[in-house]
Design brief:
By secondary structure, this protein is an alpha+beta fold. Helices cover about 45% and strands about 10% of the residues.
Length: about 210
């Protein structure tokens, strides 16, 4: 007999049961009664969702957006670390992933969650994550978000930080170490593009790329 996993999604909870079945057979779906703990988790999730903004569309799209928001919420630890993925190969916090999560949560009205992530990723001596490296691409995303949302002074401060941490040739590096020295690959196209977009956004809002019909 082989065993497989089947589950019933409840908010951010997944009830999982191992169900024996013949090799090559289709495992039956088994649901279990919802416990008080699970009901409380669903209620907590709904309260969290209601405190922000869930993008809406067709029922299918709205359901997708709701699940995506709950996934981000569930993946963010109390200290602001965002797990890269729910798999043992991805049990770490990657600044690139975290920066996207922070911006998405901010736009969805969950400023507290976003701020915790930003504090975890903040470059400098108070950064609770990797104290030896600041990743320029992720920092540039924060600058772009500030510029696009009208926080131009914050964006300007980050742009100044970039300008004072270039290589001797004036190129933007992938990382800046604890001594404030550029390290790793330079130039980094990803960072170049994000910084240029930030500079443009400081002058005027970036255009929205039209979606082709059909």
């Amino acid at each position: 007999m082989a065993a497989s996993l089947s589950g019933l999604t409840l908010g951010s909870m997944v009830v999982v049961a191992a169900i024996p079945h013949p090799p090559g057979g289709v495992p039956p779906l088994e649901t279990t009664p919802v416990t008080a703990c699970q009901q409380a988790a669903v209620s907590t999730d709904r309260q969290w969702l209601s405190a922000g903004i869930t993008p809406v569309g067709s029922p299918q799209v709205t359901s997708m957006a709701t699940r995506a928001l709950l996934d981000l919420h569930l993946s963010t630890r109390p200290d602001g670390a965002v797990i890269a993925g729910w798999h043992n190969r991805w049990e770490y916090s990657w600044p690139r992933d975290s920066s996207w999560a922070a911006v998405a949560l901010a736009y969805a009205g969950h400023a507290g969650d976003s701020l915790r992530i930003l504090r975890f990723l903040l470059p400098g001596s108070d950064w609770p994550g990797n104290r030896t490296t600041a990743w320029t691409a992720e920092t540039a995303f924060f600058a772009l978000s500030d510029a696009e949302t009208g926080h131009r002074q914050q964006a300007s401060q980050l742009l100044t930080w970039f300008a004072t941490h270039t290589t001797r040739l004036g190129t933007l590096p992938e990382k800046v170490d604890a001594r404030g020295q550029p390290v790793s690959a330079a130039p980094l196209v990803w960072t170049d593009a994000a910084v240029l977009l930030t500079l443009v956004a400081q002058a005027h809002r970036l255009p929205v790329v039209p979606i082709p019909a059909g």
